[in-house]
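Shipment paperwork, digital attachment
Item: protein structure file
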Amino acid sequence: MKKRTKSAYIFILILFPFLVLGQEQQIIEAANLYKKGKLKSVNREIRIVPSDSGAYLKIVENKKEGIVWLPVKDFKNGAIEIEMRGKDVFQRSFIGIVFHGIDAVNYDAVYCRPFNFSAKDSVRRIHSVQYISHPDFTWEKLRKERNAVFEKEIINPPSADNWFTMKLVIDGKTVKAYIGNAVEPSLTVEKLNTRTSGKIGLFTADSSGGDFKTIKINYEKAAKSIN
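Attachment content:
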């Protein structure tokens, strides 16, 4: 009886943070979504690439922005974490996450420029991770009017050619981007629109493709109490 009680106690301790925070987690593989026909691509060709570590989704380069919509329509607050890979080719690698999307015109996104991660030019390094809010706040407009506010350098950046994770934490109007296993966010911004929910997608900017693997989504719900 005591053993059963102890086991139940340990289980509650493990579950407690999720119950208190009211979070539900969804883990999905981009390649599996493609195989099930669950992805909707805008202005990009997508395909599956097998590898020793598991199949991944490749988004093929094209002009203008491209979005691959995931089967998530009502994300509000929480965290989105994705494993992705770009390349160290100047102006040819822009990869990230779309959130609070309505369509291919109206959305928020945070993306990385891997070719700037370890650039010798300090100005280029400041342009490593970027927030945008389309259609009104493009990267050009934000850089011209509020330079270095919505894009930042990544301290201890990953290799430009390797897989890395980016986690976005959205809490109301605040957006934080964590790169790799960083404890502190590389970018913290206030959203530039009034959208509070919407779709999630994979983002590649003009002339860019990218590789994407595992996606983890934590949905924040109303806090629950334990009696």
